[in-house]
């Protein structure tokens, strides 16, 4: 596994430079591209593919990029390219568009079909990159699960657009897509480990979700959800009326929901001031328990340590070739520039000289058991050995 990075302003130069640096071995099998949407994206992905002709490519636009290859770096307006390959490693890629008729579930089912095209080696994972603004991302997990079943773990993230929240992009080969699910089926003789942690703490007692519709939360304990949220967390006065102030506050105050597979975090994306409801990124089931959460730099960094440790423990003592990190943009908001550099330094320490690539997401995927696996405001780490 090799990782290259460039922040050159020219898309072609940046793509070619990062790709050439990533091609550390003689037998690349997969290219993964994470980059800012400020680039001329068709030019950039074409430059990457020209550096490694015939090698499958997947990728997406981001809300920031991180990398460890010599230096440990995190920031914006860059491109990070990962190349994975060698003997005992098989890859197949595919994409599908989320049409109105089939939606994200059918697109994920279609894209995940590439798993049938890889060699049946000892370990496998399905890596997915999706449009972070295309709808309920739990549908991606459901569609992928229907295609590959319970034995294949799912990992990945939702593309971003540097918090403009207008359009995100996915890459497959030289195609630049929207409303797409892009998948890479990976089969390997070496172990693959997944770690998942969020770093948020519960605030107060749990509440019953008494009225919800999908991702819209209307009432908690029969109280308007927006009022309960703002009052319980002691929100500043401007968050009660100003959408921008509310969003800034919500970035560091997610919602926790109880699931059969454990606790999951939901980003509170929007407030409906007229109906006093909350709009979350993914489903909040009626009749379930929920609680408000908060965190700080220390709790987020402790979660980084735990996620890396969990991913590496799954390698059964083998030395990692590298790691890929899917890190929520909201965690970055908690830590600030100095904090995210400390986080990337910790990733580098756990990698112990192996390269690391990643991006700041609008949501994360990690399904190792059960049928759920979409996360918000969470760090997901894939370790490759």
| Main beta sheet strand tally, sense and closure | 8 strands, antiparallel
Tell me what portion of residues adopts beta-strand conformation. Answer: 35-45%
Q: What structural class do the secondary elements suggest?
A: alpha+beta
- Total helix count? 8
Low-confidence stretches: none
Report the count of strand segments: 26
Describe it.
The chain has 385 residues and is an alpha+beta fold. The chain has two domains: 2-197 and 298-384, no CATH class; 201-293, no CATH class. It contains eight helices and 26 strands. It has helices at residues 11-22, 41-51, 103-112, 138-148, 225-233, 243-250, 297-313, 329-351; strands spanning 2-6, 28-35, 57-61, 65-69, 71-75, 79-85, 89-97, 123-130, 154-158, 170-172, 175-177, 180-188, 192-197, 201-213, 216-220, 223-224, 255-259, 262-266, 268-272, 277-280, 289-294, 322-328, 356-361, 364-367, 374-375, 379-384. The strands form four sheets. Strands 14, 15, 16, 17, 18, 19, 20 and 21 form an eight-stranded antiparallel β-sheet that branches. A six-stranded mixed β-sheet has the order 1-6-2-3-10-11. The protein has a six-stranded mixed β-sheet with strand order 5-4-23-22-26-13. Strand 17 (255-259) and strand 18 (262-266) form a beta hairpin. Helix 1 packs parallel to helix 2, helix 3 (103-112) runs parallel beside helix 4 and helix 7 crosses helix 8 (329-351). It is globular and about 60 Å long. The mean pLDDT is 94.
